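Good morning C.,

I know you're traveling, so I'll keep this short. The sequence:
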Amino acid sequence: MSSMNMDVDLYVDSNPKPTEVTDSFWLFEYNEEIARNSPSVDGKWLQFYDLSQLDTMWEYAKAKYRAGRLIGIHSLKVSTGRPNQRASNASQGVIIFYCGPSVDEQRIRMIGQKLLEEIPYKSWSGWMSFKTDEQTYAGTQATGQVKNHLYKIRCAKG
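The tokens, ready to paste straight into the viewer:
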């Protein structure tokens, strides 16, 4: 769980609505048994949602994870209602699906495809992006990074 930079144990495997939490940037979902099946975790698939959908999609993602349906996903986190200067769009939140190793492109793409089968996702661009932890540390588009992904796969556009 070190890649999640957990600082608030209160928000691990808890049930508050992300948009109602303002004292932490993230809520986390982690199951040791599920996580044990994932090799090196050094990246994540990202799904962005309008804030009006974020709470519902977080509940849905947690249910799929807890049921063991998100093959290859080590753990999850979701942005909250706390303002974040690293966010590119204040009207959206993000659900982050941790997996790896990022050097295994075939595995990462397979995990992404399985994720889309379990959690249908639409983005304005028609792509779902994977980025490494190293890219995260380098910054976001909001902080000036031009390329903020390692891999992309097609998803529904909308």
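Safe travels,
E.
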